[in-house]
Specification:
Belongs to the UPP synthase family. With 252 residues, this protein is of the alpha/beta class. Helix 4 (122-134) links the parallel strand 3 (110-114) and strand 4 (142-149). The chain has helices spanning 32-37, 43-64, 83-106, 122-134, 151-167, 230-241, and strands spanning 24-28, 68-75, 110-114, 142-149, 195-198, 217-220. The chain is globular. The chain is built from 6 helices and 6 strands. Helix 2 (43-64) packs across helix 6 (230-241). The chain has a 6-stranded parallel sheet with strand order 3-4-2-1-5-6, sandwiched between helices. Bound molecules: farnesyl diphosphate. Residues 29-34, 43, 47, 50-51, 54, 71, 73, 78, 92-93, 96, 145, 200, 225 line the site of farnesyl diphosphate (FPP).
């Protein structure tokens, strides 16, 4: 069955009411490996430094009016890294969740995970479930962590569920329009991102929120993720506020 409707008005409809800053910021946290290598340290050292940055960025959101923060922690392509790096990252995610669980709950942060859980180990899945349950009543920053996430994979999984609903008579194919698929995506309860940031100087989106970012503004910045600060996020949010988003329309 499809999920709840996406709370953001679609690109085909009215543009959201004017507000200066982004409501939903999504971040591709890139550059941990280069940050570590520049210090002569193993790549995992950079990932640990990157994990520490997450807390600062989450804490800045309420002051910047950012209600939704979505971060790309591990992609469906990241399994191609060495076994040592993958195992180190999985262990980092377990540690991060255990260590941050109480602080996130107390700071009124609601955490959700998106991505396919099938390849993740049972202990990590258990911690993810626990963190989601523990924070589900929280009304502050809505933090979404993309873990084993790929935009194409998400669309494929959503399409499979949609096709099943058609085959089993729950969905009329003639009624499928551009509002239908988002209800099957992992992000079905989230508004689309307004601003997508990628750190580390690469100007590509690497399979992140492909459907959802159709009308997002992008910022590709040189800073490596472990050097990213709340001040930089503030600067990007302010610069977003000066952009003219028309959602395909012409200003009259
Ligand atoms: C990309 O840098 C980063 C990742 C693949 C992992 C992102 C993970 C974190 C920031 C750490 C923890 C996150 C959470 C939620 C606890 P890269 O390794 O591709 O860097 P490079 O391009 O310099 O090699």
């Amino acid at each position: 069955m499809p999920g709840d409707a996406n709370p953001q008005v679609s690109a085909a409809g009215e543009a959201p009411a004017a507000r200066s800053g982004p409501r939903h910021v999504a971040i591709i946290m890139d550059g941990n490996g280069r940050w570590a290598q520049a210090r002569g340290r193993p790549r995992l050292f950079g990932h640990h430094a990157g994990a520490r940055r997450v807390r600062e960025v989450v804490e800045c959101c309420p002051g910047l009016g950012v209600e939704y923060l979505t971060i790309f922690a591990f992609s469906t392509e990241n399994w191609k890294r060495t076994q040592t790096e993958v195992a180190g990252l999985m262990s980092l995610f377990r540690r991060y969740i255990s260590k941050e669980m109480n602080a996130l709950a107390e700071k009124n942060v609601r955490v959700r995970f998106i991505g396919d859980r099938v390849r993740l180990d049972a202990k990590l899945i258990g911690l993810m479930d626990k963190l989601e349950r523990k924070t589900e009543g929280n009304t502050g920053t809505q933090l979404t962590i993309a873990l084993n996430y790929g935009g194409r994979d998400e669309v494929a999984r959503a399409t499979k569920r949609l096709a099943r609903d058609v085959a089993e008579g729950r969905l009329d194919p003639d009624k499928v329009d551009e509002e239908t698929l988002p209800r099957y995506l992992d992000t079905h309860v989230l508004p689309d991102p307004d601003l997508v940031i990628r750190t580390s100087g690469e100007a590509r989106i690497s399979n992140f929120l492909l459907w959802q970012s159709a009308y997002a503004e992008y910022e590709f910045i040189d800073t490596l993720w472990p050097d990213f600060t709340g001040e930089e996020l503030e600067r990007l949010c302010n610069s977003y506020g000066r952009r003219d988003r028309r959602f395909g329309a012409v200003k009259t």
